[in-house]
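Support request from a user on the community tier.

User writes: "When I paste my C-alpha cells into the form, the page sometimes reloads and wipes my input. The last time it worked, I copied everything first. Here is what I submitted, just in case something in the input itself triggers the reload:"
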C-alpha cells in the first residue's frame, strides 16, 4: 500500500465500507431515509448545496472517508460536486470543511454516516496533535487500542498518524497507510516466565525477527533501574530500549527524594536516575520510553524539567476530546436558502474532489 502523503486523498477502496448496508440506510437516522423516499416519490430533485463545519478549532480528519461514503453510497455519485479540505488540515471553529452540491434525493440518506466518520477521527487527531506539540522532539507512541472497540482501530490509528504520532500498537491501526504495530516485552510474557524479566527478554530475542526492536517493560518488580540493568547485561547492544510503566498508585523503589503524590508512577526522579545510571554503567545507548497516565499536561511538565526520556506512550488520554460536525443546506437550486442561524460561508481552502 502506498504511503499517505499530505495533500493526497486516500482511495475510497481503502475504507472497506459496508456499501450495501449504508445504501439501504442501515446506519442512518430514520428521518433521512424517509426524506429520501418522499423526494423520490414526489419526483422532487432539488439541487442543494450542503455545507459542513465543526464547532471547535481542530485538526480535521475523516474527510477522505466521508468522500468515500458519498462516492460509493450515493445514487448518482458522478453528479455530485464535492469540495473539501484535506485530512490533517488545521481548521477554525465554524470553518466550512466540505460542501456537497447535487440532487438532494441522491444523497440525503448519507448525512448521519458522513458526519459520523469525521467526528471521531477529528477528535483523536486534535488530541494527538496537542500531545505531539507538547512532546517536542520526543516521539509519541499511540497506545490506546485497549480502551475502545476494536473496529475503530483503523480510524484512530490513521488520525494519530496524520497528527504526528510515530508508532501504533496494532497492525489494524496502521492499515490505511501500510504501517505495522510495534510493541515491547509485555508484563504477561514476564509473568509466564515466572516473573523473570531476563528470561522473558531472552525468549523474545530468540524467537522474534531481527528487524523488531527489543524494548522491554521493566516495572514488573517495581525496580525499573535494577531490572533494566539486568536485561541490558543479558542482551547487550541488542536492547533498543526500556519502557517505564509504573502504575500511578505505586512508587518505584529507586524514588527516594521526591515526596507526596509526585513520587508515584513514572516520575521525573525515576527517569533522571535511570539515565544517569545507564550512562555510567556503559548502557548509554538504551532509550527510555515512559508511559502510564501521560497526557499533554504531564508531558509538558516533563519537558519543562528537561526529563531525559526518548519517547512517550499515550493511551486513554487521547479519547477525552469530543468534536461534532454539522451539515446544513444553505442553497437550493442555486439560491440562498437555509434555516435561521445558518448561511453560506465560502472557504477558498476547499479543493474540488475529482
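"...and here is what came back when it finally went through:"
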Amino acid at each position: 500500500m502506498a504511503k499517505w502523503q499530505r495533500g493526497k486523498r486516500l482511495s475510497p477502496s481503502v475504507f472497506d465500507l459496508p456499501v450495501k448496508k449504508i445504501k439501504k440506510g442501515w446506519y442512518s437516522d430514520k428521518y433521512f431515509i424517509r426524506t429520501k423516499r418522499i423526494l423520490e416519490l414526489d419526483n422532487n430533485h432539488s439541487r442543494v448545496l450542503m455545507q459542513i463545519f465543526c464547532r471547535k478549532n481542530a485538526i480535521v480528519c475523516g474527510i477522505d472517508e466521508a468522500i468515500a461514503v458519498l462516492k460509493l453510497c450515493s445514487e448518482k455519485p458522478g453528479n455530485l460536486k464535492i469540495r473539501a479540505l484535506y485530512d490533517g488540515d488545521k481548521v477554525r471553529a465554524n470553518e466550512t470543511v466540505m460542501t456537497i452540491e447535487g440532487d438532494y434525493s441522491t444523497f440525503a440518506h448519507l448525512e448521519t454516516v458522513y458526519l459520523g466518520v469525521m467526528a471521531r477521527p477529528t477528535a483523536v487527531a486534535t488530541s494527538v496533535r496537542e500531545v505531539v506539540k507538547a512532546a517536542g522532539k520526543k516521539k509519541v507512541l499511540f497506545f490506546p487500542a485497549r480502551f475502545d472497540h476494536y473496529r475503530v482501530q483503523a480510524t484512530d490509528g490513521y488520525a494519530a498518524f496524520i497528527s504526528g504520532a510515530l508508532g501504533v500498537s496494532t497492525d489494524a491501526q496502521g492499515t490505511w497507510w501500510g504501517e505495522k504495530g510495534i510493541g515491547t516485552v509485555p508484563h504477561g510474557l514476564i509473568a509466564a516466565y515466572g516473573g523473570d524479566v531476563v528470561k522473558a527478554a531472552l525468549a523474545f530475542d530468540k524467537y522474534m525477527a531481527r528487524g523488531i526492536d527489543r524494548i522491554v517493560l521493566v516495572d514488573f518488580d517495581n525496580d525499573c533501574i535494577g531490572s533494566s540493568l539486568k536485561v541490558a547485561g543479558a542482551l547487550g547492544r541488542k536492547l533498543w530500549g526500556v519502557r517505564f510503566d509504573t502504575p500511578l498508585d505505586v512508587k518505584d523503589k529507586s524514588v527516594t527524594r521526591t515526596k507526596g503524590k509526585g513520587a508515584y508512577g513514572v516520575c521525573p526522579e525515576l527517569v533522571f536516575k535511570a539515565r544517569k545510571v545507564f550512562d555510567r554503567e556503559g548502557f548509554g545507548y538504551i532509550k527510555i520510553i515512559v508511559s502510564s497516565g501521560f497526557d499533554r499536561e504531564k508531558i509538558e511538565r516533563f519537558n519543562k524539567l528537561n526529563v531525559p526520556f526518548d519517547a512517550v506512550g499515550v493511551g486513554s488520554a487521547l479519547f477525552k476530546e469530543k468534536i461534532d460536525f454539522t451539515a446544513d443546506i444553505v442553497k437550493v437550486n442555486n439560491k440562498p436558502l437555509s434555516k435561521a442561524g445558518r448561511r453560506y460561508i465560502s472557504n477558498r481552502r476547499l479543493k474540488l474532489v475529482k
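Agent notes: The reload is a front-end session timeout and is unrelated to the input. The chain has a mean pLDDT of 95. The chain has two domains: 12-123+322-352, 126-319. Escalated to web team.
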